[in-house]
């Protein structure tokens, strides 16, 4: 088995994930690209488990399992955030979200919602 | 080139091709389905690399749960069914950074491993991995269970807006809850 083949696959997938995170506007597509990056890391870990003879056997595969669990937790919280964003703004485009404003402390209402509705 | 190499090449090509389609397609739902193809090909890669348990966990959790969650999110955010043109931002910085990361890592790994061969170790069956997890990695395992619990609680708190607003409402200073319900704002 030549380890360079899965390593190159993983490197290309990671680059694709980086490209997708920076390129996509839709927050759900950004999450999909993050999944691509996490899977590239899993492939690196599993391949390293076959190439490197560690003191503890199968450490790479155990770490890949841990990364899968982390990805599951990440996708749960991430989708909750995306759905909350959709409720507040009626859009999931990540570059429509200004980072500099804070919600009104009394009502908890986002000021930009009022502005954008008045603007339309 | 052995049979394992040919399989790894074919599955890797499928995974990278499906990955390209995930980040370039104009159909939101098709991106999720291409993601299934990509993750399935990676599960096949894991099988060839003798990581049986990781492969089946990948199929169960990623293809079974994560992609279904993503498709639910596509539906809940009322994504358009057909092709949509506003999914992308201007591309050249993303192509620069993504291509740089991918090709740079590729050059690094190709330089490190060249065309060397290794023999595959024993298969990572559930028995062997279970021994490792519950002997050497017990503490990270338990920490991960706490993390999963906190992620669960966090997702529930995030997706229920009435939980965070209950406290000011009790003082009588906040607007009533009906007004701040998300349904009334659409």
UniProtKB/TrEMBL annotation, chain A:
Record's catalysed reaction(s): a quinone + NADH + 5 H(+)(in) = a quinol + NAD(+) + 4 H(+)(out)
Membrane topology (UniProt): Multi-pass membrane protein
GO biological process, one term: ATP synthesis coupled electron transport
UniProt cross-references to InterPro entries, sorted A to Z: NADH_UbQ_OxRdtase_chain4L/K, NUOK/Mnh_C1-like
Disordered: annotated span: 98-120
GO CC annotation: NADH dehydrogenase complex; plasma membrane
GO molecular function: NADH dehydrogenase (quinone) (non-electrogenic) activity; quinone binding
Residue ranges that the Swiss-Prot or TrEMBL entry lists as coiled coil: none
Keywords from the named record: Cell membrane, Membrane, NAD, Quinone, Translocase, Transmembrane, Transmembrane helix, Transport
Transmembrane segments: 6-22, 29-48, 60-83
Subcellular location: Cell membrane; Membrane
Superkingdom classification of source: Bacteria
EC numbers, comma separated: 7.1.1.-
Chief place where the protein resides: membrane
Family stated for the protein in its record: Belongs to the complex I subunit 4L family.
HAMAP family in the record: NDH1_NuoK
Subunit structure: NDH-1 is composed of 14 different subunits. Subunits NuoA, H, J, K, L, M, N constitute the membrane sector of the complex.
Function: NDH-1 shuttles electrons from NADH, via FMN and iron-sulfur (Fe-S) centers, to quinones in the respiratory chain. The immediate electron acceptor for the enzyme in this species is believed to be a menaquinone. Couples the redox reaction to proton translocation (for every two electrons transferred, four hydrogen ions are translocated across the cytoplasmic membrane), and thus conserves the redox energy in a proton gradient.
Protein name: NADH-quinone oxidoreductase subunit K
Gene: nuoK
From TrEMBL, chain B:
Intracellular or extracellular location(s): Cell membrane
Catalytic activity, as annotated: a quinone + NADH + 5 H(+)(in) = a quinol + NAD(+) + 4 H(+)(out)
Mode of membrane association: Multi-pass membrane protein
Entry keyword set: Cell membrane, Membrane, NAD, Quinone, Transmembrane, Transmembrane helix
GO CC annotation, single: plasma membrane
InterPro entries per record: NADH_UbQ/plastoQ_OxRdtase_su6 (IPR001457), Nuo/plastoQ_OxRdtase_6_NuoJ (IPR042106)
Gene3D superfamilies: NADH-ubiquinone/plastoquinone oxidoreductase chain 6, subunit NuoJ (1.20.120.1200)
GO molecular-function terms, A-Z: NADH dehydrogenase (ubiquinone) activity; quinone binding
Family stated for the protein in its record: Belongs to the complex I subunit 6 family.
UniProt name for this protein: NADH-quinone oxidoreductase subunit J
Species of the source: Micromonospora arida
């Amino acid at each position: 088995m030549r380890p360079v083949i899965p390593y190159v696959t993983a490197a290309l997938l990671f680059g694709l994930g980086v490209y997708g995170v920076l390129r996509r506007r839709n927050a759900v597509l950004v999450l999909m690209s993050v999944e691509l990056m996490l899977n590239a890391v899993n492939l690196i870990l599993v391949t390293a488990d076959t190439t490197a003879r560690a003191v503890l056997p199968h450490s790479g595969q155990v770490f890949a399992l841990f990364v899968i669990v982390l990805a599951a937790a990440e996708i749960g919280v991430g989708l909750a955030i995306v759905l909350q964003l959709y409720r507040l703004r009626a859009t999931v485009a990540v570059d429509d979200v200004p980072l500099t404003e804070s919600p009104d402390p009394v009502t908890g209402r986002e000021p930009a919602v009022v502005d954008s509705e008045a603007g339309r | 080139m052995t049979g394992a190499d040919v399989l790894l090449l074919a599955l890797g090509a499928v995974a990278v091709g499906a990955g390209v389609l995930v980040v370039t397609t104009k159909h939101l739902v098709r991106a999720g389905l291409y993601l299934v193809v990509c993750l399935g090909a990676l599960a096949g890669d894991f099988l060839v690399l003798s990581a049986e348990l990781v492969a089946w966990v990948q199929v169960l959790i990623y293809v079974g749960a994560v992609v279904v969650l993503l498709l639910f999110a596509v539906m809940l955010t009322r994504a358009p069914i057909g092709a949509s043109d506003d999914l992308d931002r201007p591309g050249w910085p993303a192509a620069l950074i993504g291509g740089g990361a991918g090709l740079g890592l590729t050059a690094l790994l190709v330089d490190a491993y060249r065309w060397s061969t290794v023999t595959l170790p024993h298969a990572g069956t559930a028995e062997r991995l279970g021994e490792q997890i519950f002997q050497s990695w017990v503490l990270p395992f338990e920490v991960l269970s706490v993390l999963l619990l906190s992620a669960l609680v966090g997702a529930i708190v995030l997706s229920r807006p009435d939980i965070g607003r209950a406290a000011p409402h009790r003082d009588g200073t906040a607007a009533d809850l009906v007004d701040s319900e998300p349904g009334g704002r659409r």
